[in-house]
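Priority: medium. Attachment 1 of 2:
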């Protein structure tokens, strides 16, 4: 999304909207523009990506606060390549601290690793990426800021930003995704093989009588951090065929009457 995209406008919200209002607006629009419901529609796909990015920022208190500051002061986003730097001062005023934002892909955030941060006037700083890092996490690297007048150096503060995923929505360590089934599959039940965020194939049992919008919980299939592993919630969307032949419709009606559904 462009840097000047207004996340509040994208979600149809006022700036002071509550966290619950942000969640409700996102879920409503995400269902409308989800790629599974708009196959081949590039515009809907881009809108969906924008909604995910808007939600990832506005649903996180720290990121939302930073975003609100940026909306009031666009010059706070001065970019020196990548990542974004903002000079500051330590409480003593003797050393110049530096703030940097490192942008990660969704997969990088899940798996962790290392990256380099280039501080203006200094050597590249090699930084560890915590496994399962949350968007908005801020870490401090002592002595890696700007040179100071007293001969020392300030500190480097790095905030991690994470690109949204096309398949998953993250809430803490839990992940959410949508699985579409036919009306008949929802009635009689089915089993689906899906790929989790780590590339592993898992089976999802969709029980008979599953209702549209019902969520199935897969324990231990969410984001894995050093402390815990979240769950994966699969929201079931039910599709109804738009067109049937007369013979198909008659057969369905006859079967439905025989088993007492009509």
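Attachment 2 of 2:
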């Amino acid at each position: 999304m462009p840097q000047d995209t207004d996340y509040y406008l994208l979600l149809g919200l006022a700036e002071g909207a509550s966290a619950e209002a942000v969640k409700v607006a996102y879920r409503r629009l995400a269902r409308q523009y989800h790629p599974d419901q708009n196959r081949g529609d590039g515009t809907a796909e881009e809108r969906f990506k924008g909604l995910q990015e808007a939600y990832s920022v506005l649903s996180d208190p720290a990121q939302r606060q930073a975003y609100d500051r940026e909306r009031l002061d666009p010059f706070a986003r001065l970019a020196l390549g990548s990542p974004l730097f903002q000079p500051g001062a330590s409480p003593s005023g003797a050393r110049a601290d530096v703030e940097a934002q490192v942008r990660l892909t969704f997969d990088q955030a899940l798996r962790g690793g290392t990256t380099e941060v280039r501080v203006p006037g200094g050597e590249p700083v090699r930084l560890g990426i915590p496994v399962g890092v949350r968007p908005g996490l801020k870490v401090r690297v002592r002595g890696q800021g700007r040179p100071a007048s007293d001969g020392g150096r300030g500190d480097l503060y790095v905030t991690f930003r994470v690109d949204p995923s096309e398949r998953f929505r993250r809430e803490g360590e839990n992940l959410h995704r949508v699985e579409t089934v036919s009306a008949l599959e929802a009635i009689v039940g089915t089993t689906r093989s899906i790929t989790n965020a780590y590339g592993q194939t898992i089976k999802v049992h969709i029980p008979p009588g599953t209702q549209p919008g019902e969520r199935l919980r897969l324990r231990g299939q969410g984001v894995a951090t050093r402390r815990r592993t979240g769950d994966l919630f699969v929201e079931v969307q039910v599709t109804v065929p738009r067109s049937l032949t007369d013979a198909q419709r008659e057969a369905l009606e006859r079967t439905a009457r025989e088993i007492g559904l009509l």
